[in-house]
Amino acid sequence: MNQEQLQVSIRAQLRAFDDQAFDRLTRALPLADVVEALGAHPPEAVSRLLQAMRPKLAADVLALLPAEQQDELLQRLPQPAVVAVFERLPSDLRADLYKRLSQNEQSRLLPALGRMVRDDILKLASYGEDTVGSVTSSDYAAISPQLTAAEAMAALRAGDRQQIEVIYIVGHEHQLLGTLPLRELVLAPLETSVAELMQHNPAYAEAGWARHRAADLIRHYELLALPVLDEAQRMIGIVTIDDAMDIEREDDTGRLASFGGAAPLDKGNLDVVHSSVRRMFSVRVFWLLILTVFGAITSTFVAQQEELLSNVVILAAFIAPIVDMGGNAGSQSATLVIRSMALGQLKLNWRDVAFVIRRELPVAAALGVAVALLDMVLSHFSKGVGADILLVVGLSMMLCTLAGGVIGAMLPFLAKRLGTDPATLSSPLITSIMDMLGVFIYFGLAYAFLGHLLA
Protein backbone atom coordinates (compact mmCIF):
# COMPACT_ATOMS: atom_id res chain seq x y z
CA MET A 1 0.00 0.00 0.00
CA ASN A 2 1.48 3.33 -1.07
CA GLN A 3 1.08 6.61 0.83
CA GLU A 4 -1.85 7.76 -1.32
CA GLN A 5 -3.77 4.53 -0.71
CA LEU A 6 -2.89 4.73 2.97
CA GLN A 7 -4.26 8.28 3.20
CA VAL A 8 -7.53 7.17 1.56
CA SER A 9 -7.86 4.24 3.96
CA ILE A 10 -7.21 6.37 7.04
CA ARG A 11 -9.59 9.08 5.82
CA ALA A 12 -12.34 6.47 5.50
CA GLN A 13 -11.67 5.15 8.99
CA LEU A 14 -11.73 8.65 10.44
CA ARG A 15 -15.08 9.35 8.79
CA ALA A 16 -16.50 6.02 9.98
CA PHE A 17 -14.89 6.35 13.41
CA ASP A 18 -13.59 2.79 12.88
CA ASP A 19 -10.91 2.12 15.49
CA GLN A 20 -10.96 -1.64 14.86
CA ALA A 21 -10.09 -1.15 11.19
CA PHE A 22 -7.32 1.22 12.21
CA ASP A 23 -6.04 -1.41 14.66
CA ARG A 24 -5.90 -3.97 11.85
CA LEU A 25 -4.11 -1.46 9.65
CA THR A 26 -1.39 -0.89 12.26
CA ARG A 27 -0.85 -4.64 12.52
CA ALA A 28 -0.50 -5.01 8.74
CA LEU A 29 1.78 -2.03 8.08
CA PRO A 30 4.70 -0.34 9.86
CA LEU A 31 3.22 1.94 12.52
CA ALA A 32 5.57 4.77 11.51
CA ASP A 33 4.04 4.85 8.00
CA VAL A 34 0.52 4.85 9.40
CA VAL A 35 1.30 7.65 11.85
CA GLU A 36 2.95 9.73 9.12
CA ALA A 37 -0.23 9.50 7.07
CA LEU A 38 -2.39 10.14 10.13
CA GLY A 39 -0.49 13.35 10.90
CA ALA A 40 -1.83 14.95 7.73
CA HIS A 41 -5.42 14.85 9.00
CA PRO A 42 -7.27 17.41 11.16
CA PRO A 43 -6.40 17.16 14.86
CA GLU A 44 -10.04 16.91 15.92
CA ALA A 45 -10.49 13.77 13.79
CA VAL A 46 -7.25 12.24 15.06
CA SER A 47 -8.29 13.04 18.62
CA ARG A 48 -11.58 11.16 18.21
CA LEU A 49 -9.75 8.15 16.80
CA LEU A 50 -7.20 8.17 19.63
CA GLN A 51 -10.02 8.08 22.19
CA ALA A 52 -11.50 5.01 20.54
CA MET A 53 -8.20 3.10 20.30
CA ARG A 54 -6.75 0.70 22.81
CA PRO A 55 -4.74 2.89 25.24
CA LYS A 56 -1.46 1.13 24.35
CA LEU A 57 -1.99 1.72 20.62
CA ALA A 58 -2.98 5.34 21.29
CA ALA A 59 0.23 5.81 23.27
CA ASP A 60 2.31 4.25 20.48
CA VAL A 61 0.69 6.55 17.91
CA LEU A 62 1.13 9.66 20.05
CA ALA A 63 4.80 8.81 20.67
CA LEU A 64 5.56 8.93 16.94
CA LEU A 65 3.85 12.24 16.22
CA PRO A 66 5.79 15.56 16.16
CA ALA A 67 5.91 17.43 19.46
CA GLU A 68 3.52 20.21 18.40
CA GLN A 69 0.90 17.63 17.32
CA GLN A 70 1.34 15.75 20.59
CA ASP A 71 0.67 18.93 22.55
CA GLU A 72 -2.40 19.82 20.50
CA LEU A 73 -3.90 16.34 20.84
CA LEU A 74 -3.35 16.30 24.60
CA GLN A 75 -5.30 19.57 24.78
CA ARG A 76 -8.20 17.94 22.92
CA LEU A 77 -8.31 14.59 24.73
CA PRO A 78 -10.51 14.27 27.83
CA GLN A 79 -8.78 13.73 31.17
CA PRO A 80 -9.41 9.94 31.39
CA ALA A 81 -7.91 9.42 27.93
CA VAL A 82 -4.87 11.56 28.79
CA VAL A 83 -4.29 9.52 31.96
CA ALA A 84 -4.62 6.21 30.10
CA VAL A 85 -2.17 7.32 27.41
CA PHE A 86 0.32 8.84 29.88
CA GLU A 87 0.58 5.61 31.86
CA ARG A 88 1.56 3.71 28.71
CA LEU A 89 4.00 6.14 27.13
CA PRO A 90 7.78 5.57 27.26
CA SER A 91 9.03 7.11 30.49
CA ASP A 92 11.33 9.71 28.89
CA LEU A 93 8.64 10.93 26.49
CA ARG A 94 6.12 10.97 29.33
CA ALA A 95 8.38 13.28 31.33
CA ASP A 96 8.92 15.56 28.30
CA LEU A 97 5.18 15.85 27.70
CA TYR A 98 4.57 16.56 31.37
CA LYS A 99 7.10 19.41 31.35
CA ARG A 100 5.35 20.98 28.36
CA LEU A 101 2.00 21.11 30.18
CA SER A 102 0.91 24.23 32.02
CA GLN A 103 1.05 24.24 35.82
CA ASN A 104 -2.73 23.89 36.03
CA GLU A 105 -2.68 20.91 33.67
CA GLN A 106 0.14 19.31 35.63
CA SER A 107 -1.70 19.72 38.93
CA ARG A 108 -4.84 18.10 37.44
CA LEU A 109 -2.94 15.22 35.83
CA LEU A 110 -0.63 14.07 38.63
CA PRO A 111 -3.28 12.99 41.19
CA ALA A 112 -5.00 10.87 38.52
CA LEU A 113 -1.87 8.86 37.71
CA GLY A 114 -0.70 5.76 39.51
CA ARG A 115 1.87 6.31 42.25
CA MET A 116 4.75 4.62 40.41
CA VAL A 117 4.07 6.55 37.20
CA ARG A 118 3.68 9.81 39.13
CA ASP A 119 6.96 9.32 41.01
CA ASP A 120 8.75 8.39 37.79
CA ILE A 121 7.51 11.52 36.01
CA LEU A 122 8.51 13.82 38.85
CA LYS A 123 11.96 12.27 39.07
CA LEU A 124 12.77 12.49 35.35
CA ALA A 125 11.12 15.90 34.92
CA SER A 126 13.32 17.36 37.65
CA TYR A 127 16.42 17.30 35.43
CA GLY A 128 17.46 20.23 33.24
CA GLU A 129 16.68 20.32 29.54
CA ASP A 130 20.21 19.61 28.31
CA THR A 131 21.18 17.05 30.95
CA VAL A 132 21.45 13.28 30.64
CA GLY A 133 18.52 13.00 33.06
CA SER A 134 16.22 14.73 30.58
CA VAL A 135 16.67 11.90 28.04
CA THR A 136 16.74 9.05 30.56
CA SER A 137 14.23 6.20 30.29
CA SER A 138 13.25 4.17 33.33
CA ASP A 139 12.25 1.25 31.11
CA TYR A 140 15.11 -1.14 31.81
CA ALA A 141 15.60 -4.58 33.35
CA ALA A 142 17.54 -4.82 36.62
CA ILE A 143 18.23 -8.00 38.62
CA SER A 144 20.21 -9.06 41.67
CA PRO A 145 23.65 -10.69 41.29
CA GLN A 146 22.52 -13.45 43.67
CA LEU A 147 20.10 -14.96 41.15
CA THR A 148 20.91 -17.95 38.99
CA ALA A 149 20.52 -17.79 35.22
CA ALA A 150 17.24 -19.71 35.49
CA GLU A 151 15.88 -17.35 38.16
CA ALA A 152 16.96 -14.33 36.14
CA MET A 153 15.12 -15.60 33.04
CA ALA A 154 12.00 -16.18 35.12
CA ALA A 155 12.24 -12.65 36.53
CA LEU A 156 12.53 -11.17 33.03
CA ARG A 157 9.51 -13.15 31.81
CA ALA A 158 7.46 -11.92 34.77
CA GLY A 159 8.29 -8.27 34.07
CA ASP A 160 6.93 -5.96 31.38
CA ARG A 161 10.13 -4.20 30.38
CA GLN A 162 10.72 -3.57 26.68
CA GLN A 163 14.46 -2.84 26.88
CA ILE A 164 15.96 -6.21 27.82
CA GLU A 165 18.82 -6.52 25.32
CA VAL A 166 21.12 -5.63 28.21
CA ILE A 167 20.30 -6.52 31.81
CA TYR A 168 21.67 -4.35 34.61
CA ILE A 169 22.93 -5.92 37.82
CA VAL A 170 22.20 -3.79 40.87
CA GLY A 171 22.80 -4.05 44.61
CA HIS A 172 20.26 -3.78 47.41
CA GLU A 173 20.41 0.04 47.28
CA HIS A 174 20.18 -0.02 43.47
CA GLN A 175 23.85 0.78 42.97
CA LEU A 176 25.13 -0.38 39.57
CA LEU A 177 27.34 -3.49 39.84
CA GLY A 178 27.59 -4.65 36.26
CA THR A 179 25.82 -5.52 33.02
CA LEU A 180 24.80 -8.76 31.34
CA PRO A 181 23.85 -9.07 27.65
CA LEU A 182 20.65 -11.06 27.20
CA ARG A 183 22.36 -13.42 24.76
CA GLU A 184 24.92 -14.49 27.36
CA LEU A 185 22.20 -15.05 29.93
CA VAL A 186 20.15 -17.20 27.56
CA LEU A 187 23.15 -19.34 26.57
CA ALA A 188 24.50 -19.79 30.11
CA PRO A 189 23.92 -22.99 32.13
CA LEU A 190 20.77 -22.59 34.21
CA GLU A 191 22.55 -23.03 37.54
CA THR A 192 25.23 -20.39 36.83
CA SER A 193 24.97 -17.34 39.07
CA VAL A 194 24.46 -13.89 37.60
CA ALA A 195 27.49 -12.70 39.58
CA GLU A 196 29.68 -15.05 37.54
CA LEU A 197 28.22 -13.95 34.22
CA MET A 198 28.05 -10.17 34.63
CA GLN A 199 30.55 -7.73 33.17
CA HIS A 200 32.11 -5.50 35.82
CA ASN A 201 32.90 -1.74 35.68
CA PRO A 202 30.45 -0.77 32.92
CA ALA A 203 30.45 2.66 31.33
CA TYR A 204 27.81 4.97 32.78
CA ALA A 205 26.63 8.57 32.80
CA GLU A 206 25.41 10.73 35.64
CA ALA A 207 22.00 12.36 35.35
CA GLY A 208 23.41 15.86 35.81
CA TRP A 209 25.96 15.59 33.00
CA ALA A 210 25.49 17.37 29.68
CA ARG A 211 23.50 15.01 27.50
CA HIS A 212 26.02 14.98 24.65
CA ARG A 213 28.42 13.14 26.98
CA ALA A 214 26.02 10.20 27.08
CA ALA A 215 25.81 10.17 23.27
CA ASP A 216 29.61 10.29 23.06
CA LEU A 217 29.95 7.31 25.43
CA ILE A 218 27.38 5.26 23.52
CA ARG A 219 29.21 5.92 20.27
CA HIS A 220 32.66 5.34 21.76
CA TYR A 221 31.82 2.01 23.40
CA GLU A 222 29.30 0.96 20.71
CA LEU A 223 26.56 0.41 23.30
CA LEU A 224 22.88 -0.32 22.81
CA ALA A 225 22.13 1.60 26.01
CA LEU A 226 24.02 3.45 28.72
CA PRO A 227 23.10 3.23 32.42
CA VAL A 228 22.38 6.52 34.18
CA LEU A 229 23.14 7.15 37.86
CA ASP A 230 21.86 9.86 40.20
CA GLU A 231 23.98 11.96 42.56
CA ALA A 232 23.95 9.10 45.10
CA GLN A 233 25.29 6.70 42.44
CA ARG A 234 22.00 4.80 42.28
CA MET A 235 20.83 3.63 38.88
CA ILE A 236 17.75 5.54 37.71
CA GLY A 237 17.49 4.52 34.06
CA ILE A 238 19.18 4.25 30.69
CA VAL A 239 19.90 6.32 27.61
CA THR A 240 19.30 4.18 24.52
CA ILE A 241 21.13 4.29 21.21
CA ASP A 242 17.98 5.81 19.66
CA ASP A 243 18.13 8.61 22.23
CA ALA A 244 21.82 9.14 21.41
CA MET A 245 21.00 9.44 17.70
CA ASP A 246 18.30 12.00 18.50
CA ILE A 247 20.75 13.99 20.64
CA GLU A 248 23.36 14.07 17.89
CA ARG A 249 20.75 14.95 15.26
CA GLU A 250 19.51 17.88 17.37
CA ASP A 251 23.06 19.01 18.11
CA ASP A 252 23.96 18.85 14.41
CA THR A 253 20.87 20.92 13.60
CA GLY A 254 21.94 23.46 16.21
CA ARG A 255 25.45 23.61 14.78
CA LEU A 256 24.08 24.21 11.28
CA ALA A 257 21.84 27.01 12.57
CA SER A 258 24.74 28.48 14.52
CA PHE A 259 27.05 28.30 11.54
CA GLY A 260 24.47 30.23 9.56
CA GLY A 261 24.25 32.96 12.20
CA ALA A 262 20.75 31.97 13.31
CA ALA A 263 21.31 29.95 16.47
CA PRO A 264 19.56 30.79 19.73
CA LEU A 265 21.67 32.38 22.43
CA ASP A 266 19.71 30.34 24.96
CA LYS A 267 19.20 26.59 24.76
CA GLY A 268 15.75 26.57 23.21
CA ASN A 269 14.95 25.19 19.80
CA LEU A 270 14.35 27.52 16.88
CA ASP A 271 12.59 26.65 13.66
CA VAL A 272 10.90 28.70 11.00
CA VAL A 273 7.60 26.80 11.25
CA HIS A 274 6.83 26.87 14.96
CA SER A 275 8.90 29.65 16.52
CA SER A 276 7.15 32.96 17.14
CA VAL A 277 7.97 36.09 15.14
CA ARG A 278 9.31 37.73 18.30
CA ARG A 279 11.64 34.81 19.00
CA MET A 280 12.83 34.62 15.40
CA PHE A 281 13.65 38.34 15.59
CA SER A 282 15.41 38.23 18.98
CA VAL A 283 17.63 35.32 17.97
CA ARG A 284 18.68 36.62 14.56
CA VAL A 285 19.06 40.30 15.42
CA PHE A 286 22.05 39.62 17.72
CA TRP A 287 24.17 38.26 14.90
CA LEU A 288 23.05 40.92 12.46
CA LEU A 289 23.96 43.71 14.89
CA ILE A 290 27.42 42.22 15.44
CA LEU A 291 27.96 41.88 11.70
CA THR A 292 26.71 45.45 11.18
CA VAL A 293 29.52 46.72 13.41
CA PHE A 294 32.09 44.87 11.32
CA GLY A 295 30.47 46.21 8.16
CA ALA A 296 30.58 49.78 9.48
CA ILE A 297 34.30 49.51 10.26
CA THR A 298 34.99 48.10 6.80
CA SER A 299 32.93 50.72 4.95
CA THR A 300 34.48 53.56 6.97
CA PHE A 301 37.96 52.39 6.05
CA VAL A 302 37.05 52.07 2.36
CA ALA A 303 35.51 55.57 2.38
CA GLN A 304 38.81 56.96 3.66
CA GLN A 305 40.55 55.68 0.52
CA GLU A 306 38.77 58.26 -1.64
CA GLU A 307 41.99 59.83 -2.92
CA LEU A 308 43.44 56.53 -4.10
CA LEU A 309 40.17 55.34 -5.64
CA SER A 310 39.63 58.64 -7.48
CA ASN A 311 43.08 58.33 -9.07
CA VAL A 312 42.85 54.59 -9.81
CA VAL A 313 39.12 54.00 -10.28
CA ILE A 314 39.58 50.41 -11.49
CA LEU A 315 40.66 49.38 -7.98
CA ALA A 316 37.04 49.60 -6.81
CA ALA A 317 36.06 46.78 -9.17
CA PHE A 318 38.26 44.26 -7.35
CA ILE A 319 37.25 44.94 -3.73
CA ALA A 320 34.30 42.54 -3.64
CA PRO A 321 35.92 39.45 -5.24
CA ILE A 322 39.07 39.80 -3.13
CA VAL A 323 37.35 40.07 0.25
CA ASP A 324 34.76 37.45 -0.71
CA MET A 325 37.50 34.96 -1.50
CA GLY A 326 38.97 35.39 1.99
CA GLY A 327 35.57 34.73 3.57
CA ASN A 328 34.94 31.70 1.38
CA ALA A 329 38.32 30.20 2.23
CA GLY A 330 37.74 30.84 5.94
CA SER A 331 34.30 29.22 5.88
CA GLN A 332 35.70 26.16 4.13
CA SER A 333 38.51 25.60 6.60
CA ALA A 334 36.29 26.32 9.63
CA THR A 335 33.74 23.78 8.43
CA LEU A 336 36.41 21.09 8.06
CA VAL A 337 37.87 21.76 11.51
CA ILE A 338 34.44 21.84 13.20
CA ARG A 339 33.55 18.53 11.54
CA SER A 340 36.79 16.93 12.76
CA MET A 341 36.09 18.24 16.27
CA ALA A 342 32.58 16.80 16.18
CA LEU A 343 33.99 13.40 15.16
CA GLY A 344 36.54 13.52 17.96
CA GLN A 345 39.51 13.72 15.59
CA LEU A 346 40.71 17.08 16.95
CA LYS A 347 41.00 18.17 20.58
CA LEU A 348 41.84 21.45 22.27
CA ASN A 349 45.59 21.06 22.69
CA TRP A 350 48.69 22.65 21.19
CA ARG A 351 49.58 19.49 19.29
CA ASP A 352 46.32 19.51 17.33
CA VAL A 353 46.51 23.29 16.81
CA ALA A 354 50.02 22.94 15.37
CA PHE A 355 48.88 20.01 13.24
CA VAL A 356 46.02 22.02 11.73
CA ILE A 357 48.30 25.01 11.04
CA ARG A 358 50.87 22.76 9.34
CA ARG A 359 48.14 21.25 7.18
CA GLU A 360 46.28 24.46 6.41
CA LEU A 361 49.22 26.74 5.57
CA PRO A 362 50.42 24.90 2.43
CA VAL A 363 46.85 24.16 1.33
CA ALA A 364 45.72 27.77 1.77
CA ALA A 365 48.88 29.06 0.08
CA ALA A 366 48.35 26.76 -2.92
CA LEU A 367 44.71 27.78 -3.13
CA GLY A 368 45.74 31.44 -2.95
CA VAL A 369 48.21 31.06 -5.81
CA ALA A 370 45.63 29.22 -7.93
CA VAL A 371 42.84 31.76 -7.52
CA ALA A 372 45.27 34.70 -7.83
CA LEU A 373 46.62 33.47 -11.16
CA LEU A 374 43.14 32.85 -12.51
CA ASP A 375 41.91 36.25 -11.35
CA MET A 376 44.92 38.02 -12.91
CA VAL A 377 44.36 36.29 -16.26
CA LEU A 378 40.63 37.06 -16.25
CA SER A 379 41.25 40.68 -15.21
CA HIS A 380 43.82 41.21 -17.94
CA PHE A 381 41.54 40.01 -20.73
CA SER A 382 38.24 41.37 -19.40
CA LYS A 383 39.38 44.76 -18.08
CA GLY A 384 42.69 45.35 -19.83
CA VAL A 385 44.44 46.53 -16.66
CA GLY A 386 48.18 47.07 -16.46
CA ALA A 387 50.82 44.93 -14.81
CA ASP A 388 51.09 47.07 -11.66
CA ILE A 389 47.38 46.76 -10.89
CA LEU A 390 47.42 43.05 -11.75
CA LEU A 391 50.25 42.61 -9.25
CA VAL A 392 48.22 44.33 -6.51
CA VAL A 393 45.13 42.26 -7.33
CA GLY A 394 47.02 38.96 -7.51
CA LEU A 395 48.95 39.47 -4.27
CA SER A 396 45.81 40.64 -2.46
CA MET A 397 43.84 37.62 -3.66
CA MET A 398 46.61 35.25 -2.60
CA LEU A 399 47.11 36.81 0.85
CA CYS A 400 43.38 37.05 1.57
CA THR A 401 42.87 33.41 0.66
CA LEU A 402 45.84 32.39 2.81
CA ALA A 403 44.69 34.51 5.76
CA GLY A 404 41.10 33.33 5.45
CA GLY A 405 42.10 29.68 5.45
CA VAL A 406 44.32 29.99 8.52
CA ILE A 407 41.95 32.24 10.50
CA GLY A 408 38.98 30.02 9.68
CA ALA A 409 40.89 26.98 10.91
CA MET A 410 41.94 28.67 14.16
CA LEU A 411 38.61 30.22 15.17
CA PRO A 412 37.03 26.87 16.25
CA PHE A 413 39.97 26.28 18.61
CA LEU A 414 39.48 29.78 20.03
CA ALA A 415 35.81 29.03 20.61
CA LYS A 416 36.70 25.82 22.44
CA ARG A 417 39.19 27.70 24.58
CA LEU A 418 36.49 30.22 25.51
CA GLY A 419 34.14 27.38 26.42
CA THR A 420 31.62 27.93 23.63
CA ASP A 421 30.42 25.79 20.74
CA PRO A 422 32.86 26.21 17.80
CA ALA A 423 29.92 26.51 15.45
CA THR A 424 28.90 29.78 17.09
CA LEU A 425 31.80 31.40 15.27
CA SER A 426 29.54 31.28 12.29
CA SER A 427 30.11 31.58 8.59
CA PRO A 428 28.79 35.19 8.48
CA LEU A 429 31.17 36.16 11.29
CA ILE A 430 34.19 34.67 9.51
CA THR A 431 33.13 36.41 6.32
CA SER A 432 32.81 39.76 8.11
CA ILE A 433 36.24 39.41 9.71
CA MET A 434 37.76 38.67 6.33
CA ASP A 435 35.91 41.59 4.73
CA MET A 436 37.62 43.92 7.18
CA LEU A 437 41.04 42.25 6.95
CA GLY A 438 40.72 41.97 3.17
CA VAL A 439 40.33 45.69 2.57
CA PHE A 440 43.30 46.38 4.86
CA ILE A 441 45.45 43.98 2.82
CA TYR A 442 44.17 45.24 -0.52
CA PHE A 443 44.61 48.95 0.09
CA GLY A 444 47.89 48.40 1.92
CA LEU A 445 49.32 46.72 -1.18
CA ALA A 446 47.72 49.37 -3.40
CA TYR A 447 49.52 52.15 -1.52
CA ALA A 448 52.76 50.17 -1.62
CA PHE A 449 52.74 49.58 -5.39
CA LEU A 450 50.60 52.47 -6.67
CA GLY A 451 51.50 55.24 -4.23
CA HIS A 452 53.46 57.07 -6.92
CA LEU A 453 50.19 57.78 -8.74
CA LEU A 454 49.11 60.02 -5.85
CA ALA A 455 52.04 62.38 -6.17
From TrEMBL:
Pfam families: CBS, MgtE, MgtE_N. The keyword Cell membrane applies. It is a multi-pass membrane protein. The chain crosses the membrane at residues 285-303, 361-378, 390-415, 427-450. It comes from the Bacteria. Residues 198-258 form the CBS domain. Acts as a magnesium transporter. Homodimer. This is Magnesium transporter MgtE. The lineage of its organism: Bacteria, Pseudomonadati, Pseudomonadota, Betaproteobacteria, Neisseriales. The gene is mgtE.
